[in-house]
Amino acid sequence: MPGSRVWYHAYSMAEYSIGVDLGGTNYRAASVDRNGNILERISGPTNSPAGREAIVNAIAGAILELRSRRAGEQLAGIGVALPGFIDIAKGYIHASPNVPPFQGFHARDALQDKLGAPVLLENDANAAALGEKWFGAGRDVDDLLLLTLGTGIGGGIICGGKVLHGFMGMAAELGHVTVDPTGNPCACGNIGCLEKHASATAVSGMARYLNLGENLTAEQVCGLAQAGSAPARRVFELMGWALGVGLANYVQIFNFPLYLLSGGVLPAWEFFAPAMLREVEQRSLTYRSTKTRIEKATLGSDAGLVGAACLPFHS
Ligand SMILES: [Zn+2]
Hints:
The chain is an alpha/beta fold and about 325 residues long. It has twelve helices and twelve strands.
Protein backbone atom coordinates (compact mmCIF):
# COMPACT_ATOMS: atom_id res chain seq x y z
CA MET A 1 0.00 0.00 0.00
CA PRO A 2 1.64 3.27 -1.08
CA GLY A 3 0.37 5.16 1.98
CA SER A 4 2.06 2.90 4.51
CA ARG A 5 5.27 3.03 2.53
CA VAL A 6 5.34 6.82 2.82
CA TRP A 7 4.56 6.52 6.51
CA TYR A 8 7.40 4.08 7.02
CA HIS A 9 9.82 6.32 5.14
CA ALA A 10 8.93 9.47 7.10
CA TYR A 11 9.30 7.81 10.47
CA SER A 12 12.44 5.88 9.69
CA MET A 13 14.37 9.02 8.79
CA ALA A 14 16.52 10.35 11.63
CA GLU A 15 15.12 13.65 12.80
CA TYR A 16 17.11 16.49 14.31
CA SER A 17 16.72 20.14 15.17
CA ILE A 18 19.07 23.13 15.33
CA GLY A 19 19.35 25.65 18.13
CA VAL A 20 21.18 28.95 18.42
CA ASP A 21 21.97 30.77 21.66
CA LEU A 22 22.81 34.33 20.63
CA GLY A 23 24.59 36.29 23.35
CA GLY A 24 26.00 39.79 23.45
CA THR A 25 29.57 38.52 22.91
CA ASN A 26 29.30 35.08 21.29
CA TYR A 27 26.76 32.87 19.60
CA ARG A 28 26.59 29.10 19.99
CA ALA A 29 24.76 26.79 17.63
CA ALA A 30 24.12 23.06 17.88
CA SER A 31 22.23 20.25 16.24
CA VAL A 32 20.27 18.12 18.73
CA ASP A 33 18.11 15.02 18.67
CA ARG A 34 14.57 14.76 20.04
CA ASN A 35 15.94 13.77 23.46
CA GLY A 36 17.96 16.94 23.80
CA ASN A 37 21.32 15.28 23.11
CA ILE A 38 23.73 17.65 21.42
CA LEU A 39 25.04 16.12 18.18
CA GLU A 40 27.42 18.84 16.98
CA ARG A 41 28.34 22.37 17.97
CA ILE A 42 29.57 25.54 16.28
CA SER A 43 30.31 28.86 17.97
CA GLY A 44 31.65 32.26 17.00
CA PRO A 45 31.66 35.96 17.87
CA THR A 46 28.37 37.88 17.71
CA ASN A 47 30.23 41.00 16.54
CA SER A 48 27.40 43.49 17.11
CA PRO A 49 29.38 46.49 15.75
CA ALA A 50 29.31 44.84 12.30
CA GLY A 51 25.54 45.29 12.26
CA ARG A 52 22.34 43.34 11.78
CA GLU A 53 23.08 41.80 8.39
CA ALA A 54 26.48 40.50 9.54
CA ILE A 55 24.95 38.84 12.63
CA VAL A 56 22.20 37.23 10.54
CA ASN A 57 24.79 35.97 8.06
CA ALA A 58 26.97 34.53 10.84
CA ILE A 59 24.07 32.66 12.44
CA ALA A 60 22.73 31.47 9.08
CA GLY A 61 26.22 30.28 8.10
CA ALA A 62 26.52 28.21 11.28
CA ILE A 63 23.06 26.71 10.75
CA LEU A 64 23.81 25.81 7.12
CA GLU A 65 27.07 24.18 8.18
CA LEU A 66 25.27 22.10 10.82
CA ARG A 67 22.66 21.12 8.21
CA SER A 68 25.27 20.08 5.70
CA ARG A 69 26.79 17.72 8.27
CA ARG A 70 23.43 15.89 8.57
CA ALA A 71 22.59 15.54 4.91
CA GLY A 72 19.83 12.97 4.38
CA GLU A 73 18.33 13.54 7.82
CA GLN A 74 15.07 15.37 8.50
CA LEU A 75 15.36 18.90 9.96
CA ALA A 76 12.43 19.52 12.33
CA GLY A 77 13.14 23.24 12.54
CA ILE A 78 15.35 25.92 14.05
CA GLY A 79 15.07 27.63 17.43
CA VAL A 80 16.91 30.84 18.27
CA ALA A 81 17.31 32.12 21.84
CA LEU A 82 18.45 35.68 22.43
CA PRO A 83 18.37 38.28 25.18
CA GLY A 84 15.60 40.82 24.90
CA PHE A 85 11.88 41.44 24.68
CA ILE A 86 10.35 39.39 21.90
CA ASP A 87 6.85 39.29 20.40
CA ILE A 88 6.83 35.52 19.85
CA ALA A 89 3.71 35.48 17.63
CA LYS A 90 5.18 38.06 15.24
CA GLY A 91 8.81 36.94 15.55
CA TYR A 92 9.64 40.55 16.28
CA ILE A 93 12.30 41.83 18.71
CA HIS A 94 11.11 44.95 20.57
CA ALA A 95 14.40 45.53 22.39
CA SER A 96 17.69 43.71 22.92
CA PRO A 97 20.16 45.73 25.02
CA ASN A 98 22.92 43.08 24.62
CA VAL A 99 22.47 42.73 20.85
CA PRO A 100 21.54 46.32 19.86
CA PRO A 101 21.35 45.77 16.06
CA PHE A 102 18.41 43.37 16.63
CA GLN A 103 16.22 46.01 18.23
CA GLY A 104 13.05 46.61 16.19
CA PHE A 105 13.80 43.63 13.94
CA HIS A 106 11.57 40.94 12.39
CA ALA A 107 14.32 38.39 13.03
CA ARG A 108 12.21 35.27 12.53
CA ASP A 109 11.13 36.16 9.00
CA ALA A 110 14.62 37.35 8.04
CA LEU A 111 16.12 34.01 9.14
CA GLN A 112 13.34 31.93 7.57
CA ASP A 113 13.78 33.72 4.23
CA LYS A 114 17.51 33.08 4.31
CA LEU A 115 17.31 29.44 5.44
CA GLY A 116 14.10 28.17 3.85
CA ALA A 117 13.20 26.41 7.10
CA PRO A 118 10.83 27.21 9.99
CA VAL A 119 12.40 29.36 12.71
CA LEU A 120 11.12 29.96 16.25
CA LEU A 121 12.42 32.70 18.56
CA GLU A 122 12.55 32.70 22.35
CA ASN A 123 14.08 34.85 25.06
CA ASP A 124 17.32 33.22 26.28
CA ALA A 125 16.32 32.89 29.94
CA ASN A 126 12.95 31.43 28.92
CA ALA A 127 14.74 28.96 26.64
CA ALA A 128 16.96 27.93 29.57
CA ALA A 129 13.87 27.37 31.73
CA LEU A 130 12.37 25.20 28.96
CA GLY A 131 15.63 23.26 28.67
CA GLU A 132 15.55 22.52 32.40
CA LYS A 133 11.86 21.56 32.20
CA TRP A 134 12.34 19.18 29.26
CA PHE A 135 15.73 17.63 30.06
CA GLY A 136 17.08 18.97 33.36
CA ALA A 137 16.10 19.43 36.99
CA GLY A 138 12.46 20.22 36.11
CA ARG A 139 11.53 17.06 34.22
CA ASP A 140 9.04 15.91 36.85
CA VAL A 141 7.05 19.17 37.09
CA ASP A 142 4.90 21.34 34.80
CA ASP A 143 5.45 24.57 36.72
CA LEU A 144 8.82 26.04 37.60
CA LEU A 145 10.77 29.25 37.88
CA LEU A 146 14.44 29.58 36.89
CA LEU A 147 16.81 32.30 38.09
CA THR A 148 20.13 32.65 36.27
CA LEU A 149 22.73 34.34 38.44
CA GLY A 150 25.38 35.89 36.22
CA THR A 151 26.50 39.40 35.32
CA GLY A 152 22.86 40.25 35.93
CA ILE A 153 19.97 38.01 36.95
CA GLY A 154 17.76 36.55 34.26
CA GLY A 155 14.58 34.63 34.78
CA GLY A 156 12.17 32.26 33.11
CA ILE A 157 8.76 31.09 34.26
CA ILE A 158 7.18 27.85 33.02
CA CYS A 159 3.49 27.57 33.87
CA GLY A 160 1.49 24.51 32.79
CA GLY A 161 4.48 23.40 30.71
CA LYS A 162 4.57 26.66 28.74
CA VAL A 163 6.60 29.85 28.98
CA LEU A 164 4.84 32.77 30.64
CA HIS A 165 5.55 35.60 28.19
CA GLY A 166 3.32 38.47 29.29
CA PHE A 167 1.52 40.58 26.69
CA MET A 168 4.69 42.22 25.31
CA GLY A 169 7.17 39.42 25.98
CA MET A 170 8.42 41.23 29.07
CA ALA A 171 7.30 38.81 31.80
CA ALA A 172 9.81 37.16 34.17
CA GLU A 173 12.13 40.14 34.64
CA LEU A 174 12.87 38.44 37.94
CA GLY A 175 16.19 40.21 38.50
CA HIS A 176 14.47 43.59 38.60
CA VAL A 177 12.08 43.04 41.48
CA THR A 178 12.79 45.12 44.58
CA VAL A 179 14.42 43.27 47.47
CA ASP A 180 15.64 46.39 49.31
CA PRO A 181 13.73 49.67 48.76
CA THR A 182 16.73 51.64 50.04
CA GLY A 183 19.34 49.43 48.33
CA ASN A 184 21.64 49.87 45.37
CA PRO A 185 20.47 51.86 42.34
CA CYS A 186 19.98 49.82 39.15
CA ALA A 187 20.40 50.82 35.50
CA CYS A 188 16.72 49.92 34.98
CA GLY A 189 15.75 52.99 37.04
CA ASN A 190 14.71 51.09 40.18
CA ILE A 191 16.50 50.98 43.51
CA GLY A 192 17.37 47.73 45.30
CA CYS A 193 16.76 45.30 42.43
CA LEU A 194 17.53 41.64 43.19
CA GLU A 195 20.32 41.64 40.59
CA LYS A 196 22.07 44.54 42.34
CA HIS A 197 22.28 42.40 45.49
CA ALA A 198 22.60 38.78 44.36
CA SER A 199 24.25 38.58 40.91
CA ALA A 200 27.91 37.66 40.31
CA THR A 201 28.50 41.39 39.76
CA ALA A 202 26.91 42.17 43.13
CA VAL A 203 29.18 39.58 44.80
CA SER A 204 32.25 41.31 43.30
CA GLY A 205 30.92 44.70 44.43
CA MET A 206 30.30 43.54 48.00
CA ALA A 207 33.78 41.98 48.12
CA ARG A 208 35.24 45.34 47.13
CA TYR A 209 33.11 47.11 49.73
CA LEU A 210 34.35 44.72 52.43
CA ASN A 211 37.99 45.32 51.37
CA LEU A 212 38.53 41.79 50.07
CA GLY A 213 40.00 43.08 46.82
CA GLU A 214 39.35 45.44 43.92
CA ASN A 215 38.47 43.24 40.98
CA LEU A 216 37.65 39.83 42.40
CA THR A 217 35.32 37.59 40.40
CA ALA A 218 32.49 35.78 42.19
CA GLU A 219 34.51 32.55 41.74
CA GLN A 220 37.48 34.13 43.52
CA VAL A 221 35.27 35.35 46.38
CA CYS A 222 33.94 31.78 46.61
CA GLY A 223 37.52 30.51 46.80
CA LEU A 224 38.19 32.88 49.71
CA ALA A 225 35.03 31.69 51.46
CA GLN A 226 36.19 28.08 51.02
CA ALA A 227 39.54 29.06 52.54
CA GLY A 228 37.68 30.33 55.60
CA SER A 229 37.59 34.10 54.99
CA ALA A 230 34.90 35.58 57.26
CA PRO A 231 34.26 38.67 55.07
CA ALA A 232 33.92 36.45 51.97
CA ARG A 233 31.40 34.30 53.80
CA ARG A 234 29.58 37.47 54.84
CA VAL A 235 29.31 38.47 51.17
CA PHE A 236 27.49 35.22 50.38
CA GLU A 237 25.26 35.58 53.46
CA LEU A 238 24.17 38.99 52.19
CA MET A 239 23.65 37.57 48.72
CA GLY A 240 21.65 34.67 50.17
CA TRP A 241 19.51 37.10 52.16
CA ALA A 242 18.65 39.05 48.99
CA LEU A 243 17.89 35.85 47.06
CA GLY A 244 15.70 34.66 49.91
CA VAL A 245 13.67 37.88 49.89
CA GLY A 246 13.15 37.59 46.15
CA LEU A 247 12.33 33.88 46.24
CA ALA A 248 9.85 34.33 49.10
CA ASN A 249 7.93 36.74 46.86
CA TYR A 250 7.99 34.34 43.90
CA VAL A 251 6.83 31.45 46.10
CA GLN A 252 3.95 33.54 47.45
CA ILE A 253 2.87 34.57 43.96
CA PHE A 254 3.18 31.29 42.06
CA ASN A 255 2.94 28.37 44.49
CA PHE A 256 5.10 26.37 42.06
CA PRO A 257 6.66 23.11 43.27
CA LEU A 258 10.14 24.01 42.02
CA TYR A 259 12.45 27.07 41.87
CA LEU A 260 15.83 26.57 40.17
CA LEU A 261 19.04 28.55 40.40
CA SER A 262 21.73 28.44 37.73
CA GLY A 263 24.82 30.42 36.75
CA GLY A 264 28.44 30.90 37.73
CA VAL A 265 27.64 31.58 41.40
CA LEU A 266 26.30 28.05 42.03
CA PRO A 267 29.61 26.68 43.40
CA ALA A 268 29.08 29.04 46.36
CA TRP A 269 25.77 27.28 47.16
CA GLU A 270 26.95 26.08 50.58
CA PHE A 271 27.74 29.67 51.56
CA PHE A 272 24.59 31.44 50.36
CA ALA A 273 21.90 28.73 50.54
CA PRO A 274 21.51 28.63 54.36
CA ALA A 275 20.79 32.39 54.55
CA MET A 276 18.56 32.15 51.46
CA LEU A 277 16.46 29.26 52.78
CA ARG A 278 16.20 30.84 56.23
CA GLU A 279 14.84 34.01 54.68
CA VAL A 280 12.31 32.20 52.48
CA GLU A 281 11.17 30.14 55.47
CA GLN A 282 10.65 33.27 57.54
CA ARG A 283 8.86 35.31 54.87
CA SER A 284 6.73 32.81 52.99
CA LEU A 285 3.69 31.11 54.49
CA THR A 286 3.34 29.12 51.27
CA TYR A 287 6.90 27.81 51.60
CA ARG A 288 6.36 26.82 55.23
CA SER A 289 3.12 24.98 54.49
CA THR A 290 4.11 23.12 51.29
CA LYS A 291 6.87 20.87 49.95
CA THR A 292 8.28 23.66 47.77
CA ARG A 293 11.77 22.88 46.44
CA ILE A 294 14.54 25.41 45.79
CA GLU A 295 17.36 23.60 43.99
CA LYS A 296 20.29 23.84 41.59
CA ALA A 297 19.57 23.66 37.86
CA THR A 298 21.43 20.80 36.18
CA LEU A 299 22.06 21.70 32.51
CA GLY A 300 24.52 24.53 33.13
CA SER A 301 25.28 26.88 30.27
CA ASP A 302 23.72 24.47 27.73
CA ALA A 303 20.18 24.94 29.09
CA GLY A 304 19.32 27.83 26.76
CA LEU A 305 20.93 26.20 23.73
CA VAL A 306 19.11 22.90 24.22
CA GLY A 307 15.85 24.66 25.08
CA ALA A 308 16.06 26.74 21.89
CA ALA A 309 17.00 23.73 19.77
CA CYS A 310 14.02 21.72 21.00
CA LEU A 311 11.41 24.46 20.44
CA PRO A 312 10.49 22.96 17.01
CA PHE A 313 9.77 19.57 18.64
CA HIS A 314 7.24 21.18 21.00
CA SER A 315 5.54 23.80 18.82
ZN1 LIG B 1 16.78 46.81 37.98
